[in-house]
Amino acid sequence: MIAVLKRGSTKADEQKVIELIEAEGFSAHPDTGAETTIVGVVGAAPDKKVNLKEKLQVMSAVEKVVVISDPYKLTSWNFKQEKTIIDLGDGVKVGGAELTVMAGPCSVESEEQMLETARIVKDAGAKILRGGAFKPRTSPYSFQGLGEEGLKLLAMAREETGLKVITELMDIEHIDVVCKYADIIQIGARNMQNYALLKEIGKLNKPVMLKRGMAATIKEWLLAAEYVMNEGNHQVILCERGVRTFGEETRNTMDLSSIPLVQKISHLPVIADPSHGTGRWELVTPVARAAAAVGADGIMVEVHPHPENALSDGPQSLKPANFRLLMDELNAIMTSLNSFKSREKKIAYE
Amino acid sequence: MIAVLKRGSTKADEQKVIELIEAEGFSAHPDTGAETTIVGVVGAAPDKKVNLKEKLQVMSAVEKVVVISDPYKLTSWNFKQEKTIIDLGDGVKVGGAELTVMAGPCSVESEEQMLETARIVKDAGAKILRGGAFKPRTSPYSFQGLGEEGLKLLAMAREETGLKVITELMDIEHIDVVCKYADIIQIGARNMQNYALLKEIGKLNKPVMLKRGMAATIKEWLLAAEYVMNEGNHQVILCERGVRTFGEETRNTMDLSSIPLVQKISHLPVIADPSHGTGRWELVTPVARAAAAVGADGIMVEVHPHPENALSDGPQSLKPANFRLLMDELNAIMTSLNSFKSREKKIAYE
Amino acid sequence: MIAVLKRGSTKADEQKVIELIEAEGFSAHPDTGAETTIVGVVGAAPDKKVNLKEKLQVMSAVEKVVVISDPYKLTSWNFKQEKTIIDLGDGVKVGGAELTVMAGPCSVESEEQMLETARIVKDAGAKILRGGAFKPRTSPYSFQGLGEEGLKLLAMAREETGLKVITELMDIEHIDVVCKYADIIQIGARNMQNYALLKEIGKLNKPVMLKRGMAATIKEWLLAAEYVMNEGNHQVILCERGVRTFGEETRNTMDLSSIPLVQKISHLPVIADPSHGTGRWELVTPVARAAAAVGADGIMVEVHPHPENALSDGPQSLKPANFRLLMDELNAIMTSLNSFKSREKKIAYE
Amino acid sequence: MIAVLKRGSTKADEQKVIELIEAEGFSAHPDTGAETTIVGVVGAAPDKKVNLKEKLQVMSAVEKVVVISDPYKLTSWNFKQEKTIIDLGDGVKVGGAELTVMAGPCSVESEEQMLETARIVKDAGAKILRGGAFKPRTSPYSFQGLGEEGLKLLAMAREETGLKVITELMDIEHIDVVCKYADIIQIGARNMQNYALLKEIGKLNKPVMLKRGMAATIKEWLLAAEYVMNEGNHQVILCERGVRTFGEETRNTMDLSSIPLVQKISHLPVIADPSHGTGRWELVTPVARAAAAVGADGIMVEVHPHPENALSDGPQSLKPANFRLLMDELNAIMTSLNSFKSREKKIAYE
């Protein structure tokens, strides 16, 4: 961290800045240039820097404070040098060599719908079944999900197909019931900064998938993961699902570059959700292919046997034939890129 | 709502669309032009339209669906023709003729800090004391607030000064304790779409201030208020606190036009928070003046007797002298604009 | 287009709206519902609708005006049912079956740099050489390009390697000199709505590549292409280069979904520029792969033999070894996806 | 500027960084901490730092480069310690103690319209007449303005009323004709980074008003002004006209905090355009009041005697009665705030 003093600051000003830095347990390294004096801050725990930064910003002699080191601890490669692999059992993993596909309807609607969809996505090669039983909806007047009834239908579909199950948890009250049925707990974009919820799931021994908030920076997203990990639960998957921009033709703007960016900073697996990222089924297939090519660890995609009857998100759901085509395309891309892995590593480090 | 059919759609396509609309309990009004066929949708409860829209969007013959009527019910002037005034007792109101000022530190830190600040803001003319006891922080390693200890200090300051108290509630678990001490419950930007929390406070008989989410549209913000009101609690204040944009010099971009915009749609009072809206104390004063001039029902502003020692948000806190100046400026603006009220109404309706 | 009347509008209000619509040469189709009256507008040239829309919005009885049909003419599949292929001669095409790669340095700097780079990118399989001779720079104090000297170096590199040349045109004054040397004229993001310039290049018989503006919607981008095409030049390539968002870790946010979206609306080829889209060389390779997988018609990428000596954009330039790896990966992806073309078409139309 | 080296960098890496810095004419100040080494850069002309920054970013040992000093020269208070006042003669000034109002129709349409509007705005207290003769329109099929004919009508209105005239210049070709009639040349948002145009107007002896680009940062906006001033023309007015965000209810999002922010950095006057900033006439009046209260040096507002017949921007034009009310409100606000000036200064510097 560096404090830049205002032009015309005196030696006394500089001294006050140094004293504050030292009082907070850091050491100060002033450097007086012809025009500007800067004071470098070194030492102490990174988590204390946030507070020091705010205090420095208030001092009348300080022009601005520039943070240099990243605020990450547990999510960072500095903490753990091996990629995190979430092992769900029966050979299903997220973060390993394979592209793991999670597929299913937006909402759980009925036994027939869940079983039919589960068979379709299983046959096509998906490993994990998605489906919402508790639904966050912008309007209180929209369909809010089947609740535990929906969770039971997910479990029934798992029973029959062997697929693992991911489903959304919206509040602390439902932690037990969701944990009873889910293999992975999903935290939605709207709850990415619901810190009470994050802390509670941090106490569980259960994989969690944390979606990026609608307007969350990379930093905020990773710090949300720190909230979970800081409580002890290190089984975190990140999910890029598009961010809000001025764009008016798609539901969100899929920020695919966030995936390699996060993978450079963090050992956590990152997957892509092109269904919410685009909101339009015609765009889901090309953007899912792009996510595979960009290096995502997995894809989450909405599939519905009859989208025109879906109770939510029909417009962004793939029909079975389109999903099968997508799976074949994803496999082809993964195969074609596999042979370059060693060359990629070699060049990156040269 | 209107469904626009694709070019080249047949009569059979049109018939399918009409059947779906009628099956959902609406009536269909097709209009076949030279190039395009559109089908108008009339009737039934507005809250069913969301689902119908999604179903129509999936049909292969439908190019797009355009929603015409607004999705608001309880927040709208159509529901209630008189402005909502939140009466906190002792003559303190939000939504009436006066500009109500809420002021105080970001975080409650100590007895001395709270009492000193409360006296300062009371003397300057504020009616409500703000102060966070439970703090939502981006990093789990930042100061998280004093908890109930902080609430007690707020109550102590109320006892001495007669100021009303507003403080943030972050989760359902703390509803009782926060209600015990607060006159107004604040829901922060990060929790604007925490629907479980919104539903719970909807069951209370306690005023609530709902901050606009970081990237929330006007529609999403008002629908969040609908979540609260739909449970029975109609004492809702809205608070504009800036939205996230590409801007890099301020913490957020204060969207002051949202205030008259919401006031056109809704009977709920709307206040402005220039401290979070700008994140820089030098900008707080001019933007607070602007909020008064734009017609806000109130202002929430951070004041700290010694910002350089603040445990959070020091850089955006006003010192006492600046706050007193601001209060005088706000009063001057309000007085100067008061005489135009009747002329404004006359012109608006001519 | 549809005009929605305010609640409580009278028959006389409705009549005035109808009269305006008819006076502008359209026909009006009123539809009176229980709560709202809407008036449909049919007929006349789409280009007159913009003006009618504005006039309707001003009427006191009109709540809002909803545009239904798209504003595109020449760029749309309705105008031309075959994909536009830009044929540059010698078998180099943009918009055909192949992924066309344009590569080279950000700025033309010297003969040695240009020839070395041209040989490298040619050997790796690029077909078109990029290089800026006139540079748009945010600061007037940054390097502004070599001007015609730079164009001559591009031509020299073309002479030796057989690569085609693309370079940026910044103003009308330099049209002749840029046309003399370039095979494709590039219009940069900052000039996307420089209408005087667009009209002038619309009069040329020379391919033009139009970059998406920093905050341009799909609609504005295609309408900028309409400006060019409306003057007679139909050889337009579109280029997605990232848009501006709240993201702070990348130069721009690459909006890859815009590529299939535009391809659905328009017959024009669309390419991707991951160098400007990300601003960081480590992200260029994965995002370029994603662009190929999303279906882009080409890729433009910055390559520099010695990025650390580049006069501009060094941080986003690939070194030769990384570029060769990327080319191999792109070829592998294209080959792997080729076999799905017919299946994709079949499913899309079923 | 500071270069932060990667963890694990060697002394040899550090040496290379120092050599580059010195080779570019700066001096290097390395500071080796326990975890990180940072190298401070001091000296040489600020305009050379952009290039050095890019070169450093490419070096393999460099983690990131942080710029500390601002890139402004001529626009900054460091260059000129007195506020710039644009004197248009006859007592009309922009940047002085008064709030200068520029008003008139979006487009010049006819003699009758211009004379009628000019009389109205003159009577209400405006000092400058606005009106577009050359119109930048998103679609090539929209009304493009009357050209020189329109300029003549503006001059005729000036002749009769004594108002000064501001009108938009869109391209270099029309500089002479626009200069012949205009007192202030307006550069629109779309041309804010049309550097060829900026350089040409920099050579004139004529005041220029530079609108903020749709997605321009404060830095880019001021650097655009540097382009003009660097050529010799220092008579620059800045104009905030709203920026593009995710908001869907207003044409743009008015960023009023940019006004005091720019005034802190620069001696140039800054005015507000609430008509384009909101796009809706009902919001123009409150936002114009807010602009006065925030400290703008002037307001530009669209007024039309018959908005329903306007050829462009009718929906955002005030009718005469609303404009008169606004002028009275603006005067009241300015009067009420005037008495605080000295107190504001005293507190700011204490």
From TrEMBL, chains A, B, C, D:
EC number(s) given by UniProt: 2.5.1.54
Which part of the chain is the DAHP synthase ferredoxin-like domain?
1-69
Q: Name one Pfam family in it.
A: DAHP_synth_1
User: Which residues are in the DAHP synthetase I/KDSA domain?
Assistant: 85-331
Q: Which organism is it from?
A: Halanaerobium saccharolyticum subsp. saccharolyticum DSM 6643
Please name the GO terms that the record assigns under molecular function: 3-deoxy-7-phosphoheptulonate synthase activity; aldehyde-lyase activity
Q: What name appears for this protein in its UniProt entry?
A: 2-keto-3-deoxy-D-arabino-heptulosonate-7-phosphate synthase I beta
| Top-tier EC class | transferase
